[in-house]
Design a protein that fits this description.
ten-stranded mixed sheet; alpha/beta; 13 strands; TIM Barrel
């Protein structure tokens, strides 16, 4: 199991099973806390072959190299990061995606995960990823006609890929919750259970240049649904959309850049994919960029208080 020190104690994590153990009777000195965020997401590229109107990902051309990504991951691994989530764009469009996952798994102790629309999960790709990827998040916004209208792909084809994936790698289902999908959460939860998903991640729609955020009526519908939910699949919610929902944070003092950071497809480090402050990761490495970003974030907080 990998060990991480933090304000709540010694955190042990097994990437193969997903088991987390917190030894909270041991409180490491602040100077001994792990320096890296607990989790990092990396947009390998901005390219995607879907055109969802509510997508917030950048659309300008950008793509990271395997050498860049693996060097950053080795730094983060040594500094106590527990997992990396590859995204984009659509990460499976990266020409060296499988190789990146294989090398990341072989050369670090981190959990390797990625988020995908699911339509490129061929048998051949899964053959390459099995054993190198520990969890896959598949974005499924609505079911049947709703999904096909929003995503522009056949829902039956997605279902076939989910069945293929579930036989090989643990998975979770992500859903952007908006006025179109909120009424189909029961069906989505049932589908998640049917394919053996370990988690249903709710992503209340965030405002972009082309769409508004989740409207008040849909927000109330979401809150009501979560309050009455009694299904077998564990619910989770994005931090950006958690207001008004019952949440449980086992590590409430491990926040901000201690908990999470994002690297975009141009090689800039941010507090999140929505974060406005960004620091380019230069030859000095990702941990040096993280220290600079922490300084900027501290200055910004002090300026608003």
């Amino acid at each position: 199991m990998k060990l991480r020190n933090g304000p709540h104690g010694v955190h042990l994590f097994d990437r193969d099973t997903g088991i987390n153990v917190l030894l909270d009777e041991i409180r490491p000195d602040r100077n001994a806390w792990s320096k890296a965020p607990r989790q990092v997401s990396i947009a390998l590229l901005n390219l995607c072959d879907l055109h969802c109107g509510y997508c917030y990902a950048p659309k300008h051309k950008a793509c990271l190299t395997p050498a860049q990504v693996l060097a950053w991951l080795q730094e983060l691994d040594q500094a106590g990061c527990l997992g990396v989530g590859f995204g984009g764009g659509e990460p499976t469009l990266h020409p060296q995606f499988a190789d990146i996952c294989q090398q990341a798994a072989a050369n670090t102790q981190m959990a390797i995960t990625f988020t995908t629309h699911g339509h490129r999960l061929s048998q051949g790709l899964l053959d390459q990823l099995q054993g190198a990827v520990h969890f896959v998040r598949v974005s499924v916004d609505g079911v049947d006609a709703t999904y096909e209208r929003l995503r522009g792909r056949k829902f039956t084809a997605l279902r076939q890929n989910l069945d293929r994936l579930s036989a090989r790698i643990r998975l979770g289902i992500n859903v952007v919750v908006n006025q179109h999908t909120v009424a189909e959460l029961d069906q989505l939860a049932a589908m998640a259970a049917d394919v053996g998903a370990r988690e249903l991640l709710l992503l209340p729609q965030q405002p972009t240049a082309s769409v508004a955020g989740l409207d008040a009526t849909s927000c109330q519908q979401l809150q009501d649904w979560v309050s009455s939910y009694d299904g077998p699949v564990r619910l989770a919610v994005s931090e950006a959309g958690a207001d008004g929902l019952p949440t449980c944070d086992p590590l409430p003092d491990e926040r901000g850049l201690q908990a999470y950071a994002h690297i975009d497809a141009t090689g800039r480090l941010r507090a999140s994919s929505y974060g406005t402050a960004a620091v380019a990761i230069e030859h000095t490495g990702v941990m040096h960029a993280l220290a600079r970003l922490r300084t900027i974030s501290t200055i910004q907080r002090e300026a608003t208080t």
